Amino acid sequence: MAHLIVAIDPGVNGGIVWSADGDPVECAKMPGSDVEVCQLLADLSCKAKDVSLYLEEPPLFAGKNIPGSAIGKLMWNTGVLYGAAVAMGWKIHRIRPAIWQKTHTCGTKGELTTTQWKNKLKARAAELFPSVDVTLWNADALLIFDSATRGVIN
Fold first, then answer.
1. Which structural domain, as residue segments, surrounds residue 110?
2. How confident is the model over 44-55, as pLDDT tens digits?
3. Dihedral angle, C-alpha 4, 92, 90, 7, nearest 10 °
4. Is residue 120 within 8 Å of residue 138, measured between CB atoms?
5. Cα separations in angstroms, 95 against 57, 99, 121, 148
């Protein structure tokens, strides 16, 4: 049976990206409810006996530019995703944003606005995945997926 790689940006406007053994990459927006999240992961679990999840970890310090409500939802999504993946016996790799971002040629956010930085990441994802409709919701997950398939994150 196939090996499935799943990469997830758990943000409210995040995405889930997956592919089994070199099949075309598929993408989905982060589902709106916990039940929908678990159902999507259960459906993915049926595609392969061996699943590796690369789950972006929430930042430990949000700073003043990210509202508490956004961090709360991000943390909640991460917990639901993590728990569902544990229940299904997936191999889980928790990845900090700085780690996967270093594996791409985008530099660092530095003085860029969040919008400029996100657009830079989106452009990089579009270069790597020309056959995928790259959007702001799936760009980070695509870049995490790329890093995972190249073996430069663990």
1. 3-150
2. 999 998 999 999
3. -30
4. no
5. 6, 7, 17, 10
Output the six-digit token pair for 123. 């452009």
In this prediction the pTM is: 0.93
15: left (phi over 0), alpha (psi -120 to 50) or beta: beta
Six token digits for residue 50: 């061996």
The CATH number of the domain holding residue 132 is: 3.30.420.10
Handedness of CA 108, 112, 118, 120 (dihedral sign): negative
* Token code pair at residue 152: 């430069």
Q: For 60-92, what is each residue's pLDDT tens digit?
A: 766 666 777 777 888 889 999 999 999 999 999
CA distance 69 to 77: 12
**Ramachandran angles phi, psi of 15, nearest 5°:** -150, 170
CB 72 within 8 Å of CB 11: no
pLDDT at 50: 95
Residues 6+ apart with CB under 8 A from 138: 9, 15, 17, 27, 29, 125, 132
Domain count, the chain: 1
